[in-house]
């Protein structure tokens, strides 16, 4: 490509600046070096079950007792939750209302009145869980072999299904301190929220608008078909899913796993884990055995069928700048076409 470009994300409509020349600035781009420790005193390791809240689920092949050794994956409430169960909140629970617009927003009121509280709040009720991905102390999910990663991803899906009554359920993984990880031991988090985040609602609305405008077509399916045809940002493809670097990638080497057959809910599907293993391996090959990275799932809000789940992941290479904070516009110094070419060479 030539100079800087403005690209629009097809799913959200957000703008991204792709600026490859900025990567030439001295010290502008680092690989987020991280040297994990040996796990001494880690509360997530097998044998330290008493140091966490009581488990709500676990994969225990030998049928061992809860909150004891013998597990493969283990889930418990987050000790420092962003969302708390309704009974744990000091504020009274307020009925949630619509999944896509809250009547608690004073700007959504049709009239101005003295009763409009511009500083209104409500209890952050819901559920926030930790899913430990391995009993032994591993800092990187990239260290898991394929069969164990399959079990881990199924544990993620099971915990998301357990909260199917929530308006939205978010699965994330933060690996490394620069990625937001506070405990080194590999783990994911599930948040069952009492509202649908604005970015997810916006994506859902764009899916619905595209479907109406095209008499039934799927936005992400059409994006994927064109990505395969162009073959510029396609990293890998198998019978079930494709791996691409999105057109409007917000971060260097961002990747997206997309089911080839549109499916609304990640938690109700069963595909994609082999490709996730390959994607993680490619990141490790390029950035080292314990890369810092973020992983997240976009899945359908409760009751929504017009959606197409996808799983995104990105190595954490540099922090956002003041421009990103001020404008909400991300700046990506590695064009996704360049990243996809490197990842194709690295992927197994």
CATH class: Alpha Beta
Strand and helix order: EEEEEHEEHHEEEHEEHEH
Beta-strand percentage range: 15-25%
- The third-level CATH topology is HIT family, subunit A
Described by its quaternary structure, the protein is single chain
Mean pLDDT score: 88
CATH architecture descriptor name: 2-Layer Sandwich
Please give the number of β-strands.
13
Main β-sheet, spatial strand arrangement:
3-4-5-7-6-11-12-10-9-8
SS-based class: alpha+beta
Largest sheet: 10 strands, antiparallel
Q: How many H/I helical runs? A: 6
Give the count of structural domains.
1
Radius of gyration: 21 Å
List keywords for this structure.
348 residues; alpha+beta; HIT family, subunit A; ten-stranded antiparallel β-sheet; 13 strands; 22% helix
Q: How would you characterize the overall build of this protein?
A:
By secondary structure, the chain is an alpha+beta fold. It has one domain: HIT-like (HIT family, subunit A, 2-Layer Sandwich). It has 6 helices and 13 strands. The strands form 2 sheets. Strands 3-4-5-7-6-11-12-10-9-8 form a 10-stranded antiparallel sheet, with helices on both faces. Strands 1-2-13 form a 3-stranded mixed sheet. Helix 4 packs across helix 6 (336-346). The longest helix has 16 residues, at 146-161.
């Amino acid at each position: 490509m030539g100079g800087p470009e403005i690209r629009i994300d097809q799913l959200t409509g957000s703008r991204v600046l792709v600026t490859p020349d900025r990567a030439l600035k001295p010290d502008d781009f680092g690989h987020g070096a991280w040297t994990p420790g040996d796990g001494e005193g880690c509360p997530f390791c097998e044998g330290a079950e008493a140091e966490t809240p009581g488990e709500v689920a676990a994969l225990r092949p030998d049928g061992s007792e809860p909150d004891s050794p013998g597990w493969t994956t283990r889930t418990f409430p987050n000790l420092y939750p962003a969302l708390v169960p309704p009974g744990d909140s000091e504020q009274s629970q307020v009925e949630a209302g619509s999944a896509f617009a809250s009547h608690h927003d004073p700007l959504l009121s049709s009239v101005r009145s003295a009763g409009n509280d511009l500083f209104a709040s409500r209890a952050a009720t819901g559920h926030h869980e930790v899913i430990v991905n391995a009993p032994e102390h591993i800092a990187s999910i990239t260290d898991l072999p394929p069969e164990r990663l399959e079990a881990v991803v199924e544990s993620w899906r099971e915990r998301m299904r357990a909260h199917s009554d929530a308006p939205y359920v978010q699965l994330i993984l933060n690996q490394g301190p620069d990625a937001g990880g506070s405990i080194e031991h590999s783990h994911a988090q599930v948040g069952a929220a009492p509202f649908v985040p604005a970015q997810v609602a916006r994506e859902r609305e764009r899916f619905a608008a595209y479907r109406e405008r095209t008499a039934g077509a799927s936005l992400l399916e059409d994006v994927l078909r064109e990505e395969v045809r162009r073959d510029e940002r396609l990293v890998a493809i198998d019978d079930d899913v494709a791996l691409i670097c999105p057109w409007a990638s917000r971060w260097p080497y961002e990747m997206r796993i997309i089911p080839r057959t549109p499916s609304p809910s990640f938690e109700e599907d069963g595909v994609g884990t082999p490709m996730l293993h390959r994607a993680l391996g490619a990141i490790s090959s390029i950035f080292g055995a314990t890369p810092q990275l973020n992983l997240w799932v976009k899945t359908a809000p409760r009751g929504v069928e017009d959606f197409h789940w996808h799983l995104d992941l990105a190595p954490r290479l540099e922090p956002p700048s003041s421009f990103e904070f001020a404008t909400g516009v991300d700046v990506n110094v590695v064009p996704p076409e360049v990243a996809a070419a490197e990842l194709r060479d690295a992927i197994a």
